[in-house]
Amino acid sequence: MYSKTSLGADQLSGSPLSPRGKKILISVGCAIAAAGIGLGVWSAVGPDKYGPSANGCVNVVIAGATGGATLHYCGATAKAFCRSAYAHDDRISLLARPQCEAAGLSPSKLSAN
């Protein structure tokens, strides 16, 4: 009754791969594996555009309604951002203060300039 709708043994058996077909299949599999390994290594050791706060650059990661965001400031912009962070008590300012310290922009250094 159901033999016409289900796969039978005669439909499952196909012709075996030729030696050339096997070599091509193995080559494609190895290329995909090598690409995956290369991507994994690159993502693990590759440089990060927004690394940790240091050397006068400040990076603050904040939560948003649709995900996270990174605030990235360097130089004079970072100094102005840190001055504002030390002058206010909002959530972003409180998150920014440790990053300003890590970037070498402490309140004492900002007031000296």
Beta fraction of the residues?
Answer: 5-15%
Total separate domains = 2
Structural class: alpha+beta
Number of helices: 5
Shape estimate: elongated
Element order, helices and strands?
Answer: HHEEHHH
- How do the strands line up in the largest sheet? 1-2
- How much is the average pLDDT? 85
Poorly predicted runs are none
Rg over alpha carbons? 29 Å
Q: Quick one: biggest sheet?
A: 2 strands, antiparallel
- CA-to-CA gap between the ends? 90 Å
* Share of residues in helices: 40-55%
Count of distinct strands: 2
Q: Can you describe this structure?
A:
There is one protein chain. The chain has helices spanning 9-12, 19-45, 76-87, 91-102, 107-112; strands at 57-64, 67-74. With 113 residues, the protein is α+β, with helices and mostly antiparallel strands. Strands 1-2 form a two-stranded antiparallel ribbon. A hairpin with a 2-residue loop joins β1 (57-64) and β2 (67-74). The longest helix has 27 residues, at 19-45. The radius of gyration is 29 Å and the shape is elongated.
